[in-house]
Amino acid sequence: MSASQSLPLILKAYLNTSLGQLHYRYYLPHPTPAPLRTSAPRSPILLLHMSASSSLSFTTLIRSLSTLGHPCYAPDMPGFGSSFSPTTSPPNIAWYASLYHTAFAQLAGFENGCHILGHHSGAIIGTELANGERYGGFVQSLTCVGPAVLSEGQRVDMARTFLDPFNRPVASGEHLLKTWEYLQWEGLSPGSDLELLHRETLDHVRAWKGRSQIYRCVWDFDCEEALGLVVDKKRVLGLCARDDVLWPYFEQFKAVGGGLRGEVIKGGNFGPDLDWEGILKWFVPFIDEIEL
Question: What is the pTM of this model?
Fold first, then answer.
């Protein structure tokens, strides 16, 4: 068997929603026959990507987590990847969270909730989903890769840089080069990250409108207030790289207190690809402590 054949096979599928089809990648561990089972089935992990990537960014993490027995699901956000594109601008983060909750809560294995690992915008959606008053026990734990606890003024400042659709399609094709150069500014090198740079360019070009739609909601969302509504903050973990665009605000995340944890990883703005091992180092013991 070749190395590629031995890798866990990540499948792709669609969930029908009232607004359109939600595309997702997933992996289901082989079920252990009941007489041989020594422990309860592991809870599913819901991986939520950043803007303007797609579920492709979680491929390596899914393959690693699959060996631990966790079912893994990674949707493409509406307006990203192969999911539907919203016909009108979503009004708030709760719109995305409610869509995910409705779509995944119906699946087998989610009866007792899931662990959420969200990256940047995905972490914001995950924080909203951790609101027990709105979504019940859907979230067993929340891990934010690049948490965004910003003051209102800081969010206004970020919106000046990360809101306008800089790569709106134009007849000259200039938007393609703009996207390529933007991702280099975000930290990807053509010399060492060419394949990742190419993949992210394609994802960002597809999501030129979806990026602005979610960012409008992100910069309106008070993450500190939302984290304050999480009852058990010991079930919240923040991970951030020193060269992540959100690193200057990481201390504000940790200052929320209540027992939540903050740890340092590497990988800049692309941790799930460039430091998946660092993420696993903190994430796996964290969810094991909750489950086992």
Answer: 0.95
